[in-house]
Amino acid sequence: MELYDPNENAEDLEDLEDSEDSDTGSGLFDDLDPVIAREQNPSQPLKSAGSQPRKKVRAMLDPWELARYFVSVHASSLREITLTGSTPTLAFWETLARDCSMILESLTLITPRIEQRAETAFWMSIAMRTSQVHPLLELLKNSPNLESLGLRLSRKNIVCVLETLALVARFGLYPSVSSLPSSSTPVRHTTTMSTEKAWTPFHSMSIDCDGITDQQLSALLRFTTRVINVFACDTGFGDEAMQVMHERSHFMTVREMNLDRCPNVTSKMVNTLLVSCPALEALSAEIFYVVDMAQDGSQPWACLNMRELCLNIDLFDPCQEHIESADNDVLEEEGSESDKEVNEAEEARKSMEALQVAERQRLIIAQLAQLRKLKVLYASRGSMDYRRSGPRECVDFILEKGLDQLAGLTQLEEIYFSGWDRPPRLPEAEWMLKHWKQLKVVHRGRYTVYFDKWGHDLKTMFTAPEGFYNNQEAFDVFP
C-alpha cells in the first residue's frame, strides 16, 4: 500500500467525485460516506450511500480519514505500507496499531514537502515520554513480523535525526538515557522501557538523514541482534560502526550494504567487508585500492554469493602515489647525480612500477574470478580524474592481462568499466559474447552506456567510435 501526499490528493477529491457520479457500480466511497457521516454525528441514523450528496460528505472528509478507512477495510492484507507527504494524524496511527500490527512487515514514512516546524513537532510527539505511548510506537513494538522501517526526512535538520534516535530509545536499543546523543530538547526518561535490550525482529536499517554521525549509527547497530541490510548513504558511517558490526557478528549476517557518499569510509574498510562477510550479496562503495588488498596479505574474499559489486577501483592509492612522486621530485632537485644516473633510476622506477601494476592486476582479477554468481560488476575508476591519473591505475579488461580468467562469471548481465583509457578491441568483444551469454549492458568510456536488451551483437557496440551512441544515427544500427 502506498499513500501519496493526502493533502494534495484532497484538492483532487472533487474531480474524483465527478468521475464517480456516473458510475453505476459500487466503489470505495459508496460505503465510506454513511460510515463517516455516522462517526461525525452518532445521533444521526445510518443512511444509505445514495441518501445524501457525495459532495457534501466529501467536503467533510479529512484525507487521512479516507486513508484510515482504507486501512480498516484492507487490514488483513496490508503487509507493506509507504506513507508519502504530510505527517499522518493520530487517529490514523491508532488505526494502524489496532488493525495491522500482526501482519505488517514494512513501514516507510517519507516527508518530502512537510514544513520544518510540523516535522519537528511530529518527532517530538513520538519521542515524548508521557504516560500515553504514541500509537506509532505501539504499532512498531507490537508488530512481530516487522522487518523494515524507513524514515526519510526532507530537512537537513539534526534535531529531527536526534528525535528519531530518541524514538528508537523507547524500545530499549540504548541501555540508558545517558547513551542518547545530546539534544537541545531534553527527553524525560521512564524506567519501564529500559528493560528491553533489543528490537529482535529488526534486520533492515535504512538511514537517509543528512547529519547522522558514526557514533549514532554504531549505537543503532550495537543494540540490534541481527543485521541483514544496511543502507547508509550520505552518512557518517566509519570506524566505530565497522567495529560494532564486527563485535556484534553482523559481518556474518549482512547481505546488502550501500555506503555511497560516506566520507569516512576507507578502502581498508571495504576490503574488510569483502574478506569478512560470507553472506554479502550486494556492496556499493566509492573507493577501493587494490594496494590495500595486497598489504593485507591478499586474503581471499569471503563473499562468494556476491550478485552486485559496485566499486571505484584503483590499483594504487592516489594519495600515496602523489606523496612518493613529490618526494622523488625533491630528491632529483637536491641531488647531484649525472644525467645517466638519473635516467637509470627512472628506468628502474618504471620497471618496478610495471611489476606492481601487473601483480595488482593479477590480484584483483583473481578475486573477481571467484564471484561466480555475479550479475552486476561496476569496476570504474572514479577516485581520481582519469585524464590526470593515467592508464596504470585502472583494471585492464583485456585478454593479455587476465580477462580469460573471468570466464566463470556466466551469470554476468551488466559490466561497467568507465574511465578505461584503452579503446575497446574486437577480441575482447568476441570473448565476452562467447563466455558471458547473459550480458545485456556494457559501459565503456566515461559517459555512454550501451544496452543490448534486443539481443543484438555487442561487437558493433565495441567497435563504434566514442560518443557514437549519443547521436540519433546510432539507432539505425539496430532496426
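The above is record 1. Record 2 follows with the same two-line structure.
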Amino acid sequence: MVNSNSTETSENRTGIYADIQNLQDISREVLVVLIRRWPDNVPPPGKLNLYVRADHADLWRVWASHEFSDIEVVVKGVQHYTLSATKNAADMAIAVDAISDFNHDRVNHVAVVSDDSDFISLYAKLAEEVNGLDLTYSNGNIPFLWVFTDRMGTRSALLQEFFPGEYIHVVDHRLFHQVERDRRRAEAEAEARSVARSRNAQDRVEKGTAEAEDATAVAEVSVEPPAPAQVQAESPPLEPEPDDSRRAPEPEPEVVEDRPLISEAQREASETERIAIQLIREMPVGKFKSMDCQDIIRTNFPNHHLANAGGAVFGTIFRREVLPFMEKRGVKDLPGQSPRQYEMTLQAKSSLTRA
C-alpha cells in the first residue's frame, strides 16, 4: 500500500494520462492550458502519457516533445478497428498504465484527461491502494485528479452529482491564446533579465580592471625619488636640444573611414529571418493567419517595421518578406482562402531541432 501523504520530494510527481481521441480537435489546446496553468494543490507533472490513433503516434510524439521539453513524454498508439472497440482499448490502456506507474513509484499522483465517465473504477482502485478496502471516507487524500473540458453536454449528470468535487478540474481550452501570450511575455522578460545580468557582470569586471589600474598608477607615483646628490652624480651631461625648425615634417596618419561590415539590406534580411524562426518556434501546429503573428513580433522585435504595421499592410509585408524564410523550413501557404491562411507544420518545428 502506498501512502500518498508522504513528504513531497523531487521524485513526487504527477502522471498525466490523456485520451486524445476523446478530446478530439481541442486536445492540444487543452493540454497546453492544463500544464501551463497546473493546479497548485497537485504535485507538478513529470510524465505525460498520450493515447492516440496508432497512425498518428509519431506526429504527436514530435509535437509533445517540443512543446513540453521538461516533461517525460510517452505516446501510445491505439489500433483503430471500430469506434467502440478503440474507445474501450484506450480506456483500458489508461487504467492499466496508471495503476502500474503508481504501484512502481514512477508517479505519485494520477491525472486523467478525458470527458469520458469510465474512470470511476480507476479512482476506486487508487483509493483502495491508499486506504485499503474502506472507501467510506477519502479525506481528500486519494492521489487522483479527473480533468474535464468545458465542452457542453460531454459529462455524465450522475458523475457530476456523485463524484467528489475536490478531485475534478475543468480546463477552459479557450484560454489557449492567452496562455501562449503569457508564456511569450515571460520568456521575453527572462531574456531581458539575463541580458541585464550579463551587462552588470561585464560592468563589474571593467570597473574592477579600472580600479586595479588606478591602484598601480598610485603605487608608481608613491615611490620616493633618489637623493639630489645621487641624481647629479648619475645623470649624464645634458645635450643641446635639436632645432625642430630643420626637422622634416612627419606625414599625417591616413584617416580610414569606418565602413559597415554588412549592408543595410543584409542586416534587414538577417533580422527578418530571425523573425521567421521565432514565429516557427512559438506558433502552434495548424492553420493560422498573418495577423496571428503580430503579437509575437511586437514582443520580440518591437523596433521592426512589422511591429506597428496594421491590417492589409501587415499581411502584404508578412507575405513578401517573412513567409519565404518560413516556407524554406516547411511552413505552407494555403491559397484560395479568404482571409489568406497558412499552415504551421511539424516539419517546420523539426527544422529548428535539426538546426
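The longest helix spans residues 176-221.
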